[in-house]
Design goal:
With 264 residues, the protein is an alpha/beta fold. Helices cover 37% and strands 23% of the residues. The chain has a six-stranded mixed β-sheet, with helices on both faces. A three-stranded antiparallel β-sheet has the order 2-1-4, covered by helices on one side. The relative contact order is 0.17.
């Protein structure tokens, strides 16, 4: 299938170099620097840490005050409007709250998303069916989105985000509102996507990452306080942890306690 997407862009790479972002006088992201390749990276942090703002910056919804983002080696904001369009064609973004055309079929929803992200009108329907198959919604292709369950709508949102085969996939709380079986199913789909894409997944459900992420970024008060393998975050708890927490949760909580105790 020809999607109109550059095949060389399929191996995903995402980087930040000294990114700052402000809301008015308040700095909400401070010196964000990282370099990510193919696979799933978790983005953790308490409410207000700046996770959604960072995802907006990476998705080119917001422009950084200082520093730069890099999508497959190119800074979207340095090469003009054409470069911005090219970068967006390589990014899939599923915000925590997303809209669907509830009266339209699932295939129509995904085909429209694919077309908006650079897939030709001729190829959009085929791209939509490929994407729906990937998230096990092919059987619902001709059903209106309004007929889907909550878990199915979440998977439809994911299908919309990946229909143009993005090199970089940004997900903000994709498992919110899903029951355990639906969360497991979504993890399986994301593992498949991450075989060729760089996936950055923001979540409050720490143990989701233990099942599918190879690395973790932790934000606290707009700063990265940890970046590294999932196992390294688990080891931060040492032998001291609450009986009801997992090793990964305990390491995360231990890290937040120590980072908040340190002067800025």
């Amino acid at each position: 299938m020809t999607t109109g997407v550059d095949e060389s862009a399929l191996a995903g790479h995402l980087a930040c170099q000294g990114v700052f972002y402000q809301f008015g006088p308040r700095t909400v992201l401070t010196d964000i620097t990282f370099d990510l390749g193919v696979g799933v990276t978790g983005l953790l942090g308490p409410n207000g840490a700046g996770k959604s703002t960072l995802l907006d910056v990476l998705a080119t919804v917001r422009r950084p005050r200082l520093g730069r983002t890099m999508v497959n080696g190119a800074n979207p904001f340095e090469v003009g409007a054409r470069g911005l369009d090219l970068a967006r064609s390589q990014i899939g973004y599923l915000p925590q709250r997303f809209s669907l055309m509830m009266g339209a079929t699932c295939q129509r929803n995904v085909a429209y998303a694919a077309w908006c992200n650079g897939v030709t009108a001729r190829d959009a329907a085929t791209a939509a069916m490929d994407s729906l198959s990937m998230v096990d919604l092919a059987a619902q292709a001709r059903e209106p989105a309004a007929h889907l369950s909550g878990g199915q709508r979440q998977r439809l949102g994911l299908a919309c985000a990946i229909a143009h085969r993005p090199a970089v996939l940004l997900l903000d709380e994709p498992t919110v509102g899903l029951d355990p079986a639906q969360r497991i199913e979504l993890r399986r789909h994301l593992r498949r996507v991450a075989e060729t894409s760089c996936v950055l997944l923001s979540t409050h459900i720490v143990d989701d990452l233990a099942q599918m992420a190879s690395s973790v970024l932790v934000l606290s008060e707009g700063r990265i306080v940890f970046q590294g393998p999932v196992g390294a975050l688990s080891r931060l708890a040492g032998d001291v942890r609450e009986s009801l927490s997992s090793p990964l949760e305990a390491g995360y909580l231990s890290l937040l306690g120590s980072s908040r105790a340190c002067p800025s």
